[in-house]
Give the backbone structure.
Amino acid sequence: MANIRPYRETDKFNVQRVCLQTVNDDVVFEGLNRPNAELFLALYNDYYTEQEPENCLVCTNDADEAVGYIICSDNVKRWRKVFMKEYMPRIRHRKFGEKIIAVGEVVAHSLFAARYPAHLHIDILKEYRGNGTGTQLMDTLVAHLRAKGVRGVQLCVDGHNVRGIRFYKRYGFKTLLNFSQGRAMGFKIL
Ligand SMILES: CC(C)(COP(=O)(O)OP(=O)(O)OC[C@H]1O[C@@H](n2cnc3c(N)ncnc32)[C@H](O)[C@@H]1OP(=O)(O)O)[C@@H](O)C(=O)NCCC(=O)NCCS
């Protein structure tokens, strides 16, 4: 069983590393300066650890280093406000097609915010997958959100991510919307 614990500020580098490494398992991690790092960290990582660290969990190796995470915002409205003000500007010089990804996430999450006020991202380094850690991370986050009275959690997943989609479906997530790049899925907690 993997060790799962709350996120700490000192996990930030390893969490960013997991984010960038899991974008493409086959590309060796080259540090935080690789060309697309700012894009992926602004879109999928830094908001959560910087603004809602209490809704972030990590799984760790024997040295207590984060090798995976589940990071979450428990309130789409708050996320949208802060994300648009502080994180979108970090990618304002990027290509139009890249910024559209962010806009798509904002629209999708906003559409389903009433029934699914929380949204999440989950990533685990390749060598630590397939032994139940993802399920454990999800169980721990769902229990945390339930205790806070959060009704549901949603996410967006790339349409090519067959294993990810299978994992979410098996967990009980339902498809809320199919769009050109992927799908929005939701899980009712209360
Ligand atoms: C999606 C992801 C988070 C799932 O995490 P995980 O730790 O692999 O998940 P689990 O081990 O709980 O379950 C996944 C698989 O392991 C199997 N499994 C679960 N418990 C197991 C156990 N104790 N022993 C062996 N296999 C097990 C499941 O049956 C499942 O099988 P599948 O590959 O046929 O679907 C992980 O694969 C990942 O990080 N993928 C890359 C990044 C990504 O796609 N993130 C989602 C972006 S939206």
